[in-house]
Amino acid sequence: MKLLLDFFPIILFFVAFKVAGIYVATGVAIAATVAQIAWLRYSTGKVEPMQWVSLVVIVLFGGATIVAQNDTFIKWKPTVLYWLMAGSLAAGQLFFKKNLLKSLMGSQLELPDTAWRVTNWSWVAFFSVMGVVNLWVAYHFDTNTWVNFKLFGGLGLMVLFILAQAVYLGRHMKAEEAGKP
Fold first, then answer.
1. Do residues 174 and 85 share a domain?
2. C-alpha to C-alpha distance for 143 and 120, rounded to whole angstroms
3. How many whole angstroms separate alpha carbon 29 and alpha carbon 9?
4. Residue 178 pLDDT
5. Which among 45, 71, 113, 115 is placed 20 to 30 Å from 35, CA to CA?
């Protein structure tokens, strides 16, 4: 259910784009994200910081898209989010000497510090590259292709990366955690 809620604005954006175009889809994405945050706040009493950041970014870039009637702003939104995530992970490691992934997942996974560092930097690299790839698609293809890439290409690359991470992490998990006797 949580996964569906996380993808709710993206799916609605995609459907609205196919039915009514980029500007309507952008308005739908803004409304869906506001509804998502409101629902999370109401149902759990808690909204993650990255969800607040996502709300601010969609309102700013989506609002600029609608006001200026220029789809360039909405095409930059995923890149801004990717780079904010990469920057947060990198800044945590470099400036605060804190691995944010370990802070988030450390209670669920026991890994050596080296594996946490590699995982953290892998995500920094992945998010950085995804930001560049998003811009490349946005500037080299039409809006329809970009929207399809945003949903299917971005999601597909994320799944492949997560699978690669799972293989890497599996090699570093303790025997009890990996389900071995």
1. yes
2. 32
3. 5
4. 46
5. 71
Which of 68, 95, 119 finishes a domain? 68
DSSP sequence for 145-165: HHHHIIIIIHHHHHHHHHHHH
Q: How many CB atoms lie within 10 A of CB 99?
A: 19
Residue 178, phi then psi, degrees to nearest 5: -75, 0
CA–CA dist 144, 138 (Å, integer): 10
Q: What length does the chain have?
A: 181
Number of domains within the chain: 2
Q: Which two tokens stand for residue 119?
A: 């995982």
- Is it the case that residue 165 has pLDDT exceeding 50? yes
Where do runs of H (alpha helix) occur along the chain?
A: 2-20, 22-44, 49-68, 72-94, 100-105, 113-140, 143-148, 154-170
Q: For the chain, what is the mean pLDDT?
A: 91
Asked if 144 and 104 sit in the same domain, the reply is yes
Give yes or no for a contact between 9 and 29, defined as CB atoms under 8 angstroms apart.
Answer: yes
